[in-house]
Design brief:
Structural class: alpha+beta
Number of strands: 8
Shape: elongated
Strand content: 5-15%
Helix content: 55-70%
Length: 387
């Protein structure tokens, strides 16, 4: 006795419907949602202009790194070490380097993700179905259900490359911090030189003014010539112009110092800066020994960053070589047609007959060579700087 097939709506009973609905809700609940963060140029500019050297957050940052309380706050004088920490707190270049590291760390998550399967189905309605037979049928073709399986360790190589790029981005923070410190020291030296030159020219101007006064008195009693008085006035005017030029250079050096600190120049008003660090030049016997220089050559952040970039190029080459071997795609199929249930299993691979991935492999090899040459060039540059 033949049983009449049940309609599709009856096969999908309430428990099944609830299960499917629960799966759909679970997938939707795990999805990220967009949170808008509008960027306002006026607000960011106002926030920059509001930066000061008496900020409570800066106080906590300095005390945490100096391992001591700073009393009074703000300090009466700012030395090079404290100014370096100010630059580390405010300088936007470090914020950019940290943001780039965040992008690279997110890339590690992306590299570790496995490809999701895809599914599709085709419901059909037979308008000419015989009486007593369900007009509905449901088909999931092999090509609409794809379960990808990566081969040849591609995921491992991809994760290794992403982690090495993340390490390189993290080391970039150290390199940027060193550059920020170097820029700050150069700016501080320029300001110190401008202060010294201005003080010297002020003394020269005072001396020249006394000479003019003396010559004018002697000219009044006939003991000096007019040409001598004129030459003295010219020298005095030249000293005044030179002093004005040095004062302008001091203003510019102060602006460069504020830029190196990452604060508006107005934040340096009424701030006493100590030049003790730049006034004491290192003695020759205190310079690092050859072994210390060698350790610096091997452990500088920019050198370690270049090594991490080279390791990432190695992993990238391994990944491209592994891509010669095709991934496997499983495609199970399902069909429900008027009460008859049919299963099938599809198996798909890419046939490497027209190319063997030679182009991407060659590009990866060239990038590895480029990374090696860049490391050698950087090493030569570092040796020159140390010398």
């Amino acid at each position: 006795m033949r049983h009449t097939p049940l309609p599709l709506t009856l096969i999908m009973k309430k428990p099944m419907k609830l299960l499917i609905l629960g799966l759909v809700l679970a997938v939707m609940a795990g999805c990220a949602t967009f949170q808008p963060k509008p960027l306002s140029p006026s607000q960011t500019a106002a926030a920059f202009e509001a930066r000061t050297l008496d900020d409570p957050g800066l106080e906590a940052f300095l005390e945490g790194n100096l391992h001591r309380a700073i009393t009074p706050w703000p300090p009466k004088s700012w030395d090079f070490r404290m100014l370096t920490l100010v630059a580390f707190y405010y300088q936007p270049d470090l914020d950019v380097a940290r943001a780039k590291w965040g992008v690279a760390k997110a890339g590690v998550i992306t590299a570790g993700e496995r490809p999701n399967p895809t599914v599709g189905f085709i419901p059909q309605f037979n308008a000419n179905a015989a009486s007593g037979i369900s007009p509905w049928s449901l088909t999931v073709p092999n090509e609409m259900l794809d379960i990808p399986i990566e081969t040849a360790g591609k995921r491992g190589y991809r994760m290794a490359q992403a982690q090495q790029l993340s390490d390189a981005a993290r080391l970039d923070i150290g390199t940027t911090a060193w550059q920020v410190r170097s820029h700050l020291r150069t700016s501080l030296l320029d300001l110190y030189a401008a202060h010294q030159a201005e003080a010297l020219l002020q003394q020269q101007q005072a001396v020249q003014a006394e000479i003019v006064k003396s010559l004018e008195q002697r000219f009044a009693v006939g003991e000096a010539s007019q040409s001598a008085v004129t030459q003295a006035h010219i020298a005095l005017d030249q000293s005044r112009l030179a002093l004005q030029e040095k004062q302008q250079q001091r203003v510019e050096a102060r602006a460069r110092l504020a830029d190196a600190l990452g604060i508006p120049v107005g934040a340096l008003d009424r701030v006493d800066i100590s030049f003790d660090n730049v006034e004491r030049s290192p003695m020759a016997e205190n310079l690092p020994s050859h072994e210390v220089q060698r350790q610096e050559l091997l452990n500088r952040p920019d050198m370690l960053r270049a090594l991490a970039a080279y390791a990432a190029s190695q992993s990238a080459l391994q990944l491209e070589i592994a891509k010669q071997y095709p991934d496997v795609h499983l495609g199970p199929g399902y069909s429900w047609d008027q009460g008859e249930i049919k299963w099938s299993l599809g198996f798909t691979i890419t046939l490497p007959v027209l190319n063997r991935h030679q182009g991407p492999i060659a590009e990866a090899e060239a990038r590895r060579t480029e990374a090696a040459v860049s490391f050698s060039a950087l090493q030569a540059q570092v040796i020159g700087e140390l010398d």
